[in-house]
Design brief:
By secondary structure, the protein is α/β, with parallel strands linked by helices. The chain is built from 13 helices and 9 strands.
Length: 307
């Protein structure tokens, strides 16, 4: 098999029960100003019209669009299958409910041509909330030092890589792969390991628009917290990461527990929230016992518990 073109790109869309919004994602790929792309849609066991919709689009552009099907296995498994199928040097994973801006692939390819290869190349994204309001998030230029990048991403310091706005070198992404045992935040594991092991670069251009869905996993507190308890074990793999990266495990695990504490507290689930706060203290007292967090914890005892 011949080597892929150095700047070739495949867009991968995992789709499960996505009939309501998949057309927007597909149209955004087909509307790219740079026509040199391939698209792989992986139907992840949908029972609605997702597969038929994807097949109609593929029939209009069979040379560039490939449709794969599989029993429902989760977004990580769907993305892994798409990456394994791709023949390009780079892959970009786009969620089925989001969209690329028309110039996204052109901007990414121009950056590769101007500045050379990268393992992770990411830009800005806009978030459209359920009320129609929109906010743009633009990364700064400080990315490019593995340990600093790893820490910034883990603790949410600045705008980091996110699906739709990040290009990954396929060889490294396929070798590391998305974890398939969790169905939420699986990107955190892969992106963090790629930041630790690869060369990262950011660009200020807007690449994607992400649409918040009321019932999406990203808004599901239960799913987020359940996944958070497994993420640290998957991410901090001693067979992949050097000790300097592994040393962040306790602080990261505590940070995830505190994230769950905040979300559950806002949802009125004070008893559950406090359980996560207690877990954070056990993991990293220094991270948990900050004045602001301690005040929220004490205040939770006075708040009414909601179902």
């Amino acid at each position: 098999m011949s080597a892929p073109e150095p700047t070739s790109i495949t867009v991968i869309i995992p789709a499960h029960q996505a009939e309501r919004f998949l057309a927007r994602a597909l149209d955004s790929v087909r509307a790219q100003t740079d026509p040199d792309w391939a698209l792989v849609v992986v139907d992840d066991g949908s029972t609605d019209g997702t597969l038929a919709l994807a097949q109609r689009h593929a029939a209009c552009d069979p040379a560039r669009i490939t449709i794969l099907t599989q029993p429902n296995a989760g977004p990580g498994a769907a993305r892994n299958r798409g990456m394994a199928t791709a023949q390009s040097a780079y892959v970009l994973c786009l969620d089925a409910d989001d969209a690329l801006v028309p110039e996204a692939l052109a901007q990414l390819r121009e950056n590769l041509n101007s500045h050379g290869p990268a393992d992770l190349l990411f830009g800005g994204h806009a978030v459209v909330r359920t009320d129609g309001s929109r906010k743009t998030h633009t990364p700064d230029a400080r990315w490019g030092t593995p340990l600093a990048d790893f820490r910034r991403f883990l603790y949410g310091q600045g705008v980091g890589p996110t699906h739709g706005a990040v290009l990954m070198r396929r060889e490294l992404a396929t070798r590391l792969a998305y974890p398939e045992t969790i169905r939420n935040n699986e990107d955190v594991v892969l992106f963090a390991q790629m930041l630790a092991l690869g060369h990262t670069r950011s660009l200020p251009d807007l690449l994607a628009v992400k649409y918040r869905q009321p019932a999406s996993l990203r808004n599901d507190v239960n799913a987020l917290c359940a996944a958070s308890e497994q993420i640290a074990a998957l991410l901090f793999d001693a067979c992949r990461l050097a000790p300097v990266f592994l040393s962040e495990r306790a602080a990261f695990a505590a940070d995830r527990q505190l994230m769950c504490f905040r979300m559950l507290s806002r949802a009125g689930r004070q008893r559950e929230a406090r359980q996560h706060f207690h877990a954070a203290i056990r993991l990293s007292p220094q991270a948990a016992l900050q004045p602001g967090l301690l005040f929220k914890y004490l205040r939770s005892w006075a708040r009414r518990q909601h179902a």
